[in-house]
Every structure is written in C-alpha cells, then in structure tokens.
Design brief:
Blueprint (H helix, E strand, L loop, with lengths): L2 H14 L32 E2 L10 E6 L5 E6 L5 H9 L1 H11 L9 E14 L2 E13 L5 E2 L2 E4 L3 E10 L2 E11 L4 E5 L2 E3 L7 H12 L10 E2 L23 E9 L2 H7 L3 E2 L8 E7 L3 H4 L3 H15 L5
Parallel strand pairs: 3-4, 8-13
Antiparallel strand pairs: 1-2, 2-3, 4-5, 5-6, 5-7, 8-9, 8-11, 9-10, 9-15, 12-13, 14-15
C-alpha cells in the first residue's frame, strides 16, 4: 500500500476511536468570531520621490534609508508597486524585522557582506497592514564583489503550539486540517499564527491562535517554550525555509488532560475566521503515531525538540 494511502487509513482509524478517560476536561470556547483580525499598525514616515529621468508613469519610485551600521540603502519599487505600497512596505513590521536581523551582531552585514539595494516586488495587505512582502536584496561580498542570492518572501516571526492531551494512560495531539493553496492540498498541522507587531507578544499570540483554530482556552503560564532549549547562538528560533523565507518560529508545548466528551467535541470541529478564508477542521491523533501521519515541518520540529528535551532531563 502506498505511504499516503496508509497514512490516510491510519488517520481515519484514529479519528473514529473513542477513549475512556478521566472526567476532567479543557474549557472549550464557543464558535469562533466571524469578524476581527489582528492587523499590523503602520506609520508612514518616509518621503518618496520619482527618479529624475524618464516618464513618471513608468519610472519606479525610490527612497533611501539609513542602516544601524551607518550605511544607507536605496529601496526601489518594481513596476506595478505604487508609492503607497512602497511606503507601506518600508514602514512595515516584516521589513523592519528583516533589517534588524541583517544588521544585528550576528547578521549578514557583520560578516563581510554589503547591502547595496532592495527591490520591492510585491506587497500583500492584511486589512490596513502589510501581511506578506516579496523583495529582492542586492547583497555582495565586499572582498570578492560576488553577489549573494537575495530573493525574499517576508512574513516575519510566527508561533506554533504542540498540544498534548493525556487520556487513560495514552497521549493524544490536537491538530488542524486546512487548505493550503501554495502546496495545493489539505495539510494537517499544529496550530500556528503570525506575530502581529513589534511588541512581539509571542505567548499571547500562541494562546490566541489556539483559541481561534482549536477552540481551547489555554493559560499562558501553562505553555512551555520548546525553542528556548536551543543554544542562544540559534536565536532560540526555528527557520523552516531559510533559503527563501524569513519566517522564524517559536515552538510551544501544552500538556493537559481531557475526558471523552471533550475529545468527541474536538474531533471534526469546524473552526477559523471563515470571513477571512480560514476553513479549519480539528483532528485528534495518538501522539506516538504523529510523526508518521503528518508532513508539517512545525510539528516535526516540535516533536524533535520535545523528545530531545525529555531525553536530556529538561522536561518530564
């Protein structure tokens, strides 16, 4: 039997099982809200100008900004990117976060590389704030003048939560299933979400995403930061696709108990902000089979951190 078919049969068998467990359960939330989303708030502070030569309708907008190391860099807009889009992009949280990373003590600019120019190619707005940003960075090695690949899909930092529920001596994990257009299929994942702003409320975002995607209310103090066990040299983050995306993940663990009624209520529950395109279905799967039935990098990284932390006596 092909691996995908076997995994699908395993998942169906897990989903249909009913388990006798102690009568202590997690608080379930009512149906998710249909309105309201956390937007990044922006303030436009830069003055933009057209380049001196050429027609104003075809010549790209540009601006120049200063970097923490004292250098400055030119920011250009690709055709189709308006002055407003360029302004929003440069002032956005995701772009500022990228500049912060590249300019840090361990960033690329501290390692003999130079940022010559940034070419903004696409801006996707989430309400009034920038959600996703596509740009190309012209970065060269100062010594050899060799250009470094610099295409970036910027979405900023994010969080994900591995939820483990004890039931009758066995451990179960709570997952979401939702359509993912980039890969063209439904994907099982652990609940996750993007950090909304520079305040960086990582734990608060983790709790909110679990409430919105699963319907379980968690307390901040019950979450364990798995990525905090990493060596500080890593930044205590996980980078799922550093060759093309800036996303950096903070992974959390929640362990609790649930009775049979709670498990039943969770299984197949429809969640998400439907008016924002979130079509989420909840699944409950035995933890010891999770690594076989899931392709989500967030989940697999969380499993690895959790198991290694237990092996080294950092967690029970």
């Amino acid at each position: 039997m092909a691996a995908p078919a076997r995994a699908h049969r395993l998942l169906l068998s897990y989903a249909s099982s009913r388990i006798r467990i102690p009568h202590r359960c997690l608080p379930l939330l009512p149906s998710p809200p249909r309105a309201g989303i956390h937007h990044r708030r922006l303030r436009s502070q830069l003055v933009f100008q057209r380049m001196a030569s050429g027609d104003s309708q075809s010549t790209p907008s540009s601006t120049r900004i200063g970097l923490p190391n004292g250098d400055s860099v030119e920011i250009l807009a690709a055709p189709g990117v308006s002055d407003s889009d360029l302004r929003n992009a440069v002032n956005s949280f995701v772009f500022k976060q990228w500049l912060k990373n590249i300019s840090s003590e361990t960033g690329l600019l501290a390692g003999g590389l130079s940022l010559r120019q940034v070419y903004i190619q696409g801006v996707d707005m989430f309400g009034r704030g920038v959600g996703f940003l596509k740009f190309k960075a012209n970065i060269v090695d100062k010594e050899t003048q060799t250009k470094i690949p610099g295409i970036v899909f910027a979405r900023g930092p994010a969080v994900a939560v591995l939820i483990l529920l004890e039931s009758g001596g066995k451990t179960y994990v709570v997952l979401t299933e939702q359509p993912r257009v980039p890969v063209g299929k439904l994907i099982l994942e652990i609940p996750a979400g993007m950090i909304d702003n520079e305040a960086g409320d990582i734990i608060g975002t983790a709790v909110r995403e679990v409430e919105e995607e699963i319907g379980i209310s968690l307390k901040k103090e019950n979450l364990v930061n798995l990525t905090a066990f990493l060596d500080p040299i890593t930044g205590c983050k996980v980078f799922p696709s550093p060759g093309g995306c800036d996303e950096e993940l903070s992974l959390f663990l929640y362990k609790g108990t649930a009775d049979e009624d709670t498990i039943t209520a969770l299984q197949g529950k429809e969640m998400g902000l439907r008016d924002h395109g979130e079509l989420i279905k909840v699944h409950v799967v035995p933890y010891d089979k999770l690594w076989q039935v899931i392709a989500d990098a967030k989940a697999l990284a969380a499993i690895a951190l959790y198991e290694m932390a237990k092996r080294n006596g950092l967690l029970l």
